[in-house]
């Protein structure tokens, strides 16, 4: 357990930075590469602990995967690349690894057991086990399939038509990964749009998938082909430096080659609405949208965030709460009850820790209410073992008069092992 002393820099943040590869895309590239035919080379892969858990699980399933610098080489041999593991699959702290792998293993004709850390053990899995049972797979876990350890005996699947009861890309992706192996056409109805990296990657790997309105259709029995994947910078990681630049006087930061997939850019919309000085330059290329984001220190106004925007910024809400402490007026975040089932209860974690720094912030049933602008002061705070809470508090320390002591700061390695080095480059 590491406690870090964090002090305010003497001037604003300045310079250019390329944040590490997108976590959602890195996970998916390993998964699709593992079940495709032929070699997949992944460029700018995120070497964070969550994505390394995904690699370790697929190695345990018999796939040859090599890490070469910031590239990963996956030697897929089609769906049969995966073989019955003799050991438990350890999904660490990663919800994405656990839930997407459940969908993949649902169609494989063998038995496997999945177990993660203490945080994963508290996260709901019934949202995935329920639809997978409808496909005809045998899947179970603690409390009627709701919690790890999970046991799966995959089988011959029959396509399903399913309306997502929660706006979750992980649930949608698990269903699509099972659907690829099922007999017939699987349909997923998505009432609220969630990140679509799985759909995009199915196409990149030579598969077919259609979308009509809110319905996604996918034919089973498709064979995918290995390919080369370039992973854009993670906008969810960039969000910490976007916020830092907007709240630390004198800052001007350019975040190069960041993913701009429109199912992920809710933070840009919110920051622009709050009055942040920003400039986005999109680049052309294949696959995912990508570009440079320039952010400067700005006077900010409070805003209301809810409804269909929530899935497009769900992981950025902790740092948006910090941003709101530096905006004039009231910011209301609602419709975000999903925050309660992330690595921690992120409503409780953000409200408790930012209060210690002097923020005017209150929890509500489905979000929080923040009143600004408030000057923050140093205190002893804790990440709660949650990477996004840890980075939010580290960004807060850039504007506190006295030092912040951040407990459990190592949680940041889950998604951004170079976070403090990168912060140092912009503040030196
Ligand atoms: O599909 C993904 O890669 C993710 C989806 C989101 O979770 P939910 O699907 O639970 O909303 C997000 O919070 C998570 O960090 C990554
Ligand atoms: C919720 C997150 O990830 P996961 O669900 O994969 O643990 C996150 O990275 O904020």
If you had to describe this structure to a student in words, what would you say it looks like?
- It is built from 13 helices and 24 strands.
- By secondary structure, it is of the alpha/beta class.
- The relative contact order is 0.14.
- The mean pLDDT is 97.
- A hairpin with a 6-residue loop joins strand 16 (277-283) and strand 17.
- The structure holds shikimate-3-phosphate (S3P) and phosphoenolpyruvate.
Considering the chains and any ligands shown, give keywords for the structure:
428 residues, alpha/beta, UDP-n-acetylglucosamine1-carboxyvinyl-transferase, Chain, 5-stranded mixed beta sheet, 4-stranded mixed beta sheet, binds shikimate-3-phosphate, binds phosphoenolpyruvate, cytoplasm, amino-acid biosynthesis, RNA3'P_cycl/enolpyr_Trfase_a/b, 3-phosphoshikimate 1-carboxyvinyltransferase, aromatic amino acid biosynthesis
Write a brief structural summary.
The protein has 428 residues and is of the alpha/beta class. It folds into two domains: 4-20 and 232-427, Alpha-beta prism (UDP-n-acetylglucosamine1-carboxyvinyl-transferase, Chain); 23-230, Enolpyruvate transferase domain (UDP-n-acetylglucosamine1-carboxyvinyl-transferase, Chain, Alpha-beta prism).
């Amino acid at each position: 357990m590491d406690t870090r002393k964090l002090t305010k820099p003497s001037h604003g943040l300045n310079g250019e930075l390329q944040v590490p590869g997108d976590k959602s895309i890195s996970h998916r590239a390993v998964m699709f590469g593992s079940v495709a035919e032929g070699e997949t080379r992944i460029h700018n892969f995120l070497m964070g602990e969550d994505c390394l858990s995904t690699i370790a699980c697929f190695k345990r399933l018999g796939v040859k995967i090599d890490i070469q610098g910031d590239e990963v080489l996956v030697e897929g041999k089609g769906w049969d690349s995966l073989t019955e593991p003799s050991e438990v699959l350890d999904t660490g702290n990663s919800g994405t690894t656990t839930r997407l792998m459940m969908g993949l293993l649902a169609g494989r004709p063998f038995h496997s057991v999945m177990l993660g850390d203490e945080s994963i053990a508290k996260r709901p899995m019934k949202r995935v086990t329920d639809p997978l049972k409808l496909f005809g797979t045998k899947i179970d876990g603690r409390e009627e399939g709701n919690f790890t350890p999970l046991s799966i005996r995959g089988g011959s699947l029959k396509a399903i038509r399913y309306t997502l009861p929660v706006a979750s890309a992980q649930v949608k992706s698990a269903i699509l990964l099972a659907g690829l192996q099922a007999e017939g056409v699987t349909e997923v109805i998505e009432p609220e749009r969630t990140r679509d990296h799985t759909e995009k990657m199915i196409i990149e790997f030579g598969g077919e998938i259609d979308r009509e309105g809110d319905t996604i259709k996918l034919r089973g029995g498709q064979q995918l082909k290995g390919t080369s994947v370039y992973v854009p910078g993670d906008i969810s990681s960039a969000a910490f430096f976007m916020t830092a630049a907007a709240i630390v006087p004198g800052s001007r930061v350019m975040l190069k080659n960041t993913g701009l997939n429109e199912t992920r850019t809710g933070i840009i919309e919110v920051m622009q609405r709050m009055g942040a000085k920003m400039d986005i330059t999109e680049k052309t290329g294949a696959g995912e949208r990508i570009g440079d984001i320039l952010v400067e220190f700005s006077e900010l106004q409070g805003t209301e965030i809810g409804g269909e925007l929530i899935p497009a910024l769900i992981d950025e809400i902790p740092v948006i709460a910090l941003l709101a402490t530096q905006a004039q007026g009231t910011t209301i975040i609602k419709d975000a009850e999903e925050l309660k089932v992330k690595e921690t209860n992120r409503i409780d974690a953000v409200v408790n820790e930012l209060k210690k720094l002097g923020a005017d912030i209150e929890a509500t049933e489905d979000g929080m209410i923040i009143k600004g602008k408030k000057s923050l002061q140093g205190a002893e705070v804790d990440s709660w073992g949650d990477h996004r809470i840890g980075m939010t508090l580290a960004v807060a320390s850039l504007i506190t008069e006295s030092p912040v002591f951040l407990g459990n700061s190592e949680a940041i390695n889950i998604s951004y092992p170079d976070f403090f080095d990168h912060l140092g480059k912009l503040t030196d």
